[in-house]
Design a protein that fits this description.
With 227 residues, the protein is α+β, with helices and mostly antiparallel strands. It has four helices and 14 strands. Strands 5-11-10 form a three-stranded antiparallel beta sheet, covered by helices on one side. Strands 6-8-7 form a three-stranded antiparallel beta sheet, with helices on one face. The structure holds zinc ion.
């Protein structure tokens, strides 16, 4: 992900604008403190950009194919510390995931995180627990065209026992889906990230299409094989 931010560090003097290459943040809107820390790390001694200005001008740029090129997104995948989300009760649906801030179109929201198992194992888990929320298993095909499953029926994963696993609590909607899953590879691990389909306001519920049959998603070789 290459993100170009245009800003003028010295607007009042009218000097030439500086183009800042900000691939660090990529497809995920950073917080003000993140930007401030990043600016500080650069060690600039003059014409320092303002974090608030960068934040205002921030847009996910590029294509979703490059979402994981962002070191910021990779760090969140590693730590599973997704921000800007909250869990609320939804009438007749149990729980759902809501936004605590605005998300731009094309922004990474969170990962569908869980235990990687084979398709057969996933089907066996589903068969042994018929009351299971269908959102707690995600079937897909990996880049080698093998049918796989992410098992997220446990409330938390073994690798991040203290993290809230939001992906498993996102409800289904085919007509009102505002995010979509997309397969990436990170450190040889399949990573399924949810990416916004449009701008999402504060306090909107996130929904994706669980699908009931095979569905192809845009992008070469990416086919998620849904239940
Ligand atoms: Zn984990």
């Amino acid at each position: 992900m290459i993100l170009f931010l245009l800003f003028s560090p010295s607007v009042t003097s009218g000097s030439t604008c500086t183009t800042m290459r900000c691939e660090h943040f990529g497809c995920r809107k950073p917080s003000t403190s993140k930007i401030e820390a990043w600016i500080q790390k650069r060690g600039w001694t003059s014409n320092n950009p303002q974090a608030s200005l960068i934040l205002r001008q921030w847009k996910p740029v590029g294509t979703v194919d490059t979402a994981l090129d962002s070191s910021f997104v990779r760090s969140m995948v590693t730590a599973q510390r997704w921000k800007g989300l909250t869990i609320k009760d939804v009438p007749e649906k149990g729980r759902g995931v809501f936004t605590k801030r605005r998300f731009e179109q094309g922004e990474v929201v969170c990962e569908y995180h869980g235990r990687l198992v084979s398709r057969e194992e996933g089907l066996a888990i589903h068969a042994s627990s018929p009351d299971m929320n269908p959102g707690h298993l995600l079937f897909y095909k990996n880049k080698r065209n093998e049918a796989m499953c992410i098992d997220a029926h446990e409330e938390s994963c073994q690798c991040h026992p203290l993290s809230i696993i939001y992906g498993r609590l996102i409800n289904h909607s085919s007509k009102r889906a505002n995010i979509r899953p997309r397969l990436f590879i990170h450190n040889d691990r399949d990573v399924i990230l949810f990416i916004t389909l449009r701008d999402i306001l504060v306090n909107e519920e996130l929904r994706y299409d669980y699908g009931s049959k095979k569905k192809s998603f845009a992008g070469k070789g990416v086919e998620l094989d849904w239940m």
